[in-house]
Amino acid sequence: MNLCLTTPAPFPDRSTNFLRRLGFEPVTDGSRLMTDGAAVIDVDPEPRARAGVRIWSEALDGAAGETLERLGAVAFEGGQLVAAPSGVQVWVMDGPGPDLALVQRGAVLGSFAGVSLETPSLSRSVAFWRGLLGLQVAAGGADEGWVTLRKPGMVDLSLMGPLACPHSFANPSFTYFNGERNPEVLGAIRAKGIEVFEEVGSKGGAPAENAILREPGGVGFFVFND
Q: Which helix (H) or strand (E) holds 16?
């Protein structure tokens, strides 16, 4: 496992209880890392914790050191911290990262599609992630207002340009795409009493086709039909 999201958790039980209701479990007993079998989130109780992206240095592209130096990365014990063009903090940890065998197991949220970030500049964001991780454009483009970046063995990153999303956006967010199954998935979420942060695509009083959840530390979950 080479990439996860972090969420600040001054009251860790609030985040872990929310995540457990969504099918997340600690990757090992006592671990801060929680997974639904595909997405991984670090529930970080440290006072300096911020919502962001955590990666491990083994996943870095060969020229990543130049990118970090150029952007003025800040060294801390165990790694370096840098801000992506989206404004999201990126924690670059020393070492290979946890050895996890991630297998999606019918998560409450459905089919995991990757991590989404909203950015004021698609071009600068593409250059940042290409320089750091060697990700390449796999879909979309600047003229479409979104780009999906991909690299074998890594979580997909979807970058959304300014004014591209007609709904709220928490940076960063997990994305799940469920096609025509999404109403069923959202029904199961509501049945668990999980609060929906925003409903998207509701028509004529019918239940919304898409929904956004937000866990207590601020990380978002897009549960969409496509």
A: helix 12-21
Backbone phi and psi for residue 44, each to the nearest 5 degrees, phi listed first: -105, 115
Task: State the pTM of this model.
Answer: 0.93
CA angle 79, 85, 88 (to 5 degrees): 55
Contact indicator for 117, 88 with CB cutoff of 8 Å: yes
Cis amide prior to 172 (ω within 30 degrees): yes
Which residues have C-beta within 8 Å of that of residue 57, sequence separation ≥ 6?
Answer: 79, 92, 93, 94, 95, 96
66-93 residues labelled b (16+ CB within 10 A) or e (exposed): ebbeebebeeeeebbbbebbbebbbbbb
Spatial separation of the C-alpha atoms in residues 78 and 41, rounded to whole Å: 18
Interval 107-163: pLDDT, tens: 799 999 999 999 999 999 999 999 999 999 999 988 899 999 999 988 999 999 988
In angstroms, the first-to-last Cα distance of the chain is 25
